[in-house]
Amino acid sequence: MEGEGVAEGPDGECLMRPGVSLYIPPDEPHGYRNTGEGPLRFICVIPHVEA
Asked: Would you give per-residue pLDDT tens digits along the chain (51 residues)?
């Protein structure tokens, strides 16, 4: 939505910026880092699976 950053995971880093979407598999360790000068704003959707 706004800003620039990277998503970090076991396979390295992926660029985060407006217009980019990422898929992170369930239970995969990951983190986010702001690499821009302004705020990093993004939407994170976590589906709920009924057991």
From this structure: 999 999 999 999 999 999 999 999 888 999 999 999 999 999 999 888 887
